[in-house]
């Protein structure tokens, strides 16, 4: 905290901002300007949700372009508080795309639920800004600020359909447990500061050999691990996920399971993926145990679910375990595999929740496996898209999910963690049952449910584009892997 205050004084003293600072932070500045514009629209105009929607949809691609343009050489800005280029730019583009897909897919859903308010788009944009801050953090203070900005917005979004009791319940549960996890994170930062004398991540990492025997350091890192594990939904910090995902608006559940999870993993990589930390077997063992427990519990409990949203919620716990396998491997293949997995997972899981939101009827109807019986006959195009997402989530080639799992399991084998790779493969086999169960129900069972919803063309185009990306990443993974491998 003290270092954060010192950095604030550094700029309040009158020293001008450099063009490097502004260029490095250009994606963050762009989305901040965008959300302020939407905020003014909602404040000055009545019934402006349509205008807010189109301004958001038009502005987010500009933010993504700026993120791609700033990819270049990595640099720090604002007195080494923010990082830019490379890793930060790649994740900024991913978060912006996730927000864009969520906003487009949410329009029909909000209209159907009589909750079409412009504040929804403001909250999505603010939470995206928080995610970008987490990925661009060069200081633990920025990590905390980004996490809180993202979380507070998601607490509200979880209860956005406030006339539904289950939505209010999910928001309250997420808020209470999230605030508790935030306390762990903040205490962790305080302990790490006590051991290292700084909150700058690079300075802490460089100083680890000198403070490796400090109990304050390992206590702080343990608390940081708890806080971030809660945000990714890993066992044993997963209890909130099924109820929150089920009660939240369906598109918000998709956004939380992809964008928020990717942001938490970006912080995981920034804080823990360093050779000075990775050489400590105790830390790797803890990550491996959490990974294995998440894969086992998530996949086994998902089998028993009849509600598709709860099934996807438990499967997201399992996918957090798969990605933690790459971090536990503590090698370059594992880190690259985690990034690839996050990109693939964003498109396939947002697509799956998007299909649910397109077919869900008012009053939380049309969300069970039985409701999807015969969908292949009634809605062949939507059923085909859902099948692509399910096959990819199951890790079946030639879709992106297969290569995501392949890279993290290969990383575990390279690090002599064959047992963890075996657990991953076996639990992936278990997951095939409940993913293909939905495909079988859609094509091989006759249904009586009528689908009254007619998704808009822009929603169908968005779902189709996500399916194309999932397929393209599976057929040609080397394209994105080349970019990931060259991350500075």
Span between termini: 28 Å
Proportion of residues in helical segments: over 70%
User: Which parts are unreliable, with pLDDT below 50 for 5 consecutive residues or more?
Assistant: 1-5, 8-14
Q: What is the number of strand segments? A: 2
Q: Class by helix and strand content?
A: mainly alpha
Can you describe this structure?
By secondary structure, the protein is mostly helical. The chain is 77% helix and 1% strand. It contains 23 helices and two strands. It has helices spanning 2-12, 19-24, 26-44, 49-69, 86-112, 119-135, 140-158, 165-196, 201-206, 208-211, 215-232, 241-247, 250-272, 275-278, 281-303, 308-329, 332-359, 375-378, 380-394, 400-414, 418-444, 457-475, 478-485, and strands at residues 75-77, 82-84. The protein has a two-stranded antiparallel ribbon. A hairpin with a 4-residue loop joins strand 1 (75-77) and strand 2. It is globular and about 70 Å long. Residues 1-5 and 8-14 have low confidence and may be disordered.
What's the quick description here?
This protein is mainly alpha-helical and 488 residues long.
